[in-house]
Automatic annotation (TrEMBL):
This is MOSC domain-containing protein. It comes from the Bacteria. GO terms for molecular function: catalytic activity; molybdenum ion binding; pyridoxal phosphate binding. Residues 129-278 form the MOSC domain. It holds the Pfam family MOSC_N.
Length: 278
């Protein structure tokens, strides 16, 4: 039987991969996900790989940059307030100088785009500046071509899960932006209840239907500084202690929080829309 799970508490998009994003009150959702989300990324010109803060030693400073969409272009704000745009002729030079590595901003993913994902437990143990083991990840295996999502087009997390992580954290809080979701669902059930949505469909409002594919394995990103937010190792350690599951067969146990979904029916999602498990 259909089950009412809650409502859409917040909608977020991240126009440039691994940069801070923006909260919006409504969004169009298509097979590629929330319009404008992970539509751009930086390519490391030395390796050809996508720049991602999943490899904190090289790219954690991406999380000090914020990206927003304006008339089809991306506006990026650097620490200190300097603003650049994707249409600027010197955008790559500015970002390369800031990051200390040659990069190219693009909305066209390379063929078989990959990134390096540092083993998160090793980052916790050795620190963000340490050179630790990393696995190479192929992007978008559960998504249509054209974007820079890690796996599937839409990422969701429930407030019950966030509340449980906060309650177990020494800081007594956890900021939802650390987990970089598209949809934050106001839920009243058990923590990590999203695991039970796997394999089922979600109706969002009157239009959108999503199919939940898998729990979301967490990397080192939630533990890193996000703009003015401090480092928070508990953002990973708590899920690792309370929700180690196998997201997909053969991947092994991973610390998970939230779920990935693909889009069964496109439409518009609005804040306060109801969410029903079909």
């Amino acid at each position: 039987m259909p089950t009412h799970l809650g409502t859409v508490a917040a909608i977020r998009r991240h126009p440039v991969k691994s940069m801070l994003g923006e909260e919006i009150t409504a969004a169009d959702v298509s097979p590629g996900g929330v319009t404008g989300d992970r539509a751009w990324a930086l390519i490391d010109r030395e390796t050809g790989k996508v720049a991602s803060a999943k490899n904190p030693r090289l790219w954690r400073s991406l999380l000090t940059l914020s990206a927003t969409l304006h008339d089809g272009a991306v506006r990026i704000v650097l620490p200190g307030g300097k603003t650049v745009h994707s249409t600027d002729a010197d955008i790559d030079d500015v970002l390369s100088a800031f990051l200390g590595r040659p990069v190219t901003l693009t909305s066209t993913p390379p063929a078989a785009a990959t990134l390096d994902r540092a083993v998160p437990e090793e980052v916790l143990a050795a620190g963000v500046t340490a050179e630790v083991e990393a696995e190479e990840i192929t992007l978008g295996l559960g998504a249509p071509p054209g974007g820079f999502v890690d796996f599937a087009p839409v990422h969701l997390i429930g407030t019950a899960t966030l509340a449980a992580i906060a309650a177990a954290s020494p800081r007594g809080t956890v900021e939802p932006v650390r987990y970089r979701p598209n949809l934050i669902i106001e839920t009243t059930g058990a923590a990590y209840g999203e695991n039970g949505w796997t394999g089922r469909e979600l109706a969002i409002g009157d239009e959108v239907i999503l199919r939940v594919l898998a729990p979301t394995p967490r990397c080192a990103i939630p533990t890193l500084e996000h703009g003015e937010l401090p480092r928070d190792p508990a953002a990973l350690r708590v899920p690792a202690a309370h929700n180690r599951v196998e997201p997909v067969e053969g991947l092994g146990l991973r610390a998970c929080a939230g779920v990935y979904a693909d889009v069964v029916r496109s439409g518009r999602v609005r804040q306060d829309d109801g969410v029903t498990l079909l």
